[in-house]
Predict the structure.
Amino acid sequence: MPSERLQEQLKTLPNRPGVYMFRGGDSEILYIGKATSLRSRVRSYFGGAADRSLKLRELSRRTASVETFVVESPAEALLLESNLIKEHAPRFNIQLRDDKTFPYVKVTVHEPFPRVLVTRRLVRDGSRYFGPFTDVGAMRRALRMIRQMFAVRSCHYDLPRDAPDRPCLDFFIDRCRAPCVGKQTQPEYREMIDRILEILSGHTGRLKRDVRRQRDVAAGNLDFERAAELRDILRGLGSMEKRQTSIDFRGGDRDVLGISRSGDEVCCLFLRVREGKLLGRYVHFLQVGEATDDLSALTSAAIKGSYLGQDDLPPELVVPADFEDRPLIESILSERRAGSFHIRVPHRGTKRRLLEMAEGNAAQILTERTEPDVNVAGRTVAPPGARELAAALGLESPPRDIACFDISTLSGRDSVGSAVWLRDGAPRKKEYRRFRIRETADGKTDDFSMMQEVVGRYFSRRVTKDEVLPDLVVIDGGKGQLGAALHAMESAGVSDIPVVALAKRHEEVYVPGLREPLCLDRRNPGLRWLQRARDEAHRFAIEYNRRLRRRRTLRSGLAEVTGVGPTREKDLLREFGSLEEIRRASVEELTRVRGVGPATARRILAELSKTSSG
């Protein structure tokens, strides 16, 4: 039976999306969840259904109070839920993977020929970041649509300084205009990037009109294939808009600053609103003295401390208080964005509600930071091998899920690739994949191209099916295989996963961006994790290679017989099990196999007899 305090709280729950926290009698956080309707979801835990699980019965018994945080959309609720679970690790929650963050789309606008990447790290390197994205699958589909519309380069050359002698395969399949060899000028490429930035910023209206006009022209010219292509692009743009949270139906571009203070620490939270849609947020913290309690001074410090360095500036910033330097800052930011920039202090209406939402989020984030850490029994801790590996490679969090790739070939025949998956060092066989290498037109393949093919096919499939991606990718090989894998992953729209290569001879670890390989101590638990993944991938690839060779050897004798094609080969081997048993069979026994007549049976026996005597 809920306590009196809890019963009163259940009566006043809002029918809005948000996050709820169940606390025990000692204020310990027991469980954190998100809801489209806080009222319906929270009350469902205390309905008294007899068939509820033991976990739910125990959770409802221990809960003494509930706290709620109201947000504007289920997507915002998902982000906040994730942050709170990582911070408090409640015992009744299934723990999220260590410090996993939601991804951002990164556009390297500081480069002469920018790239569009996915990352989970925000670095002050001059790039433009969009996000975070709660629906990773939707984000990757959006990027595929962008790459379908615009031929953005996927290579990692430092153009134009470090350029190849000839264009890569992407140019010949119309996925890139080859700016690396001068087939696309820098102004032309920049114009394309500007359109992409416009889409990622939420400004899809002009592009939708252009695509709709092109679709109508294509349909009028009876070019129905192109019209269908443009129709799909139009639908994709529409779905991108639907995935963004509408908070101002009148539209408009603005940033909103919410400020909350606790002791010496101040949380400054900026909401990014574009075309009336909430696209993301970022947080900045200030350390202030006890005497500084003036909201105007805090507003000025927040803008000077972080906002002056922003690149994606809207025409308006909404703040909680006016301040002395406002005209000067407006002048500086107007010059930077080459257009008017105004700082507003709202007192009513939509902008005031946006400000209150930002302040509420800032207060919640500050509460999460200032509450003491709780050591919760049963918290998931990464194994020592994962922690050592993260330290050696400089990763943000221990890699719990590792995918490893290997290639196996013998004299250029029966070339295969393997992909294995280890979770906490243990094989997950259901995630294993094997690949037959597709030979090129001239029949030539090398280790690099084979690795690129296997990694590309693997990640393209996982992205298309919205499957979970690993925390770390390990490549069996050296710097060449590593480069091939990186290229394949970027082409598949996966560039936010750490990748390393492990060379067999000296167990050297190649890391992107480092000129020299890492040489870890042979007793290092992190190196042993890499070796375990590499050895398992090698075993799986060798096993598949041998199976294909045995199959080819078994069929080689039958393939020479006139009238025996692949289907009859399969039927004969299924019936008799081996070439030796077929040799021992009589004509009558062979004719029992579907499609094999007396004449064919005699030819089979004669051919196999000739092969045996040879």
Remarks:
- The two ends are 87 Å apart (CA to CA).
- Confidence is low (pLDDT under 50) at residues 96-100, 242-247, 370-380.
- The chain has five domains: 4-88, 104-203, 254-370, 384-539, 560-613.
- The longest strand covers residues 277-287.
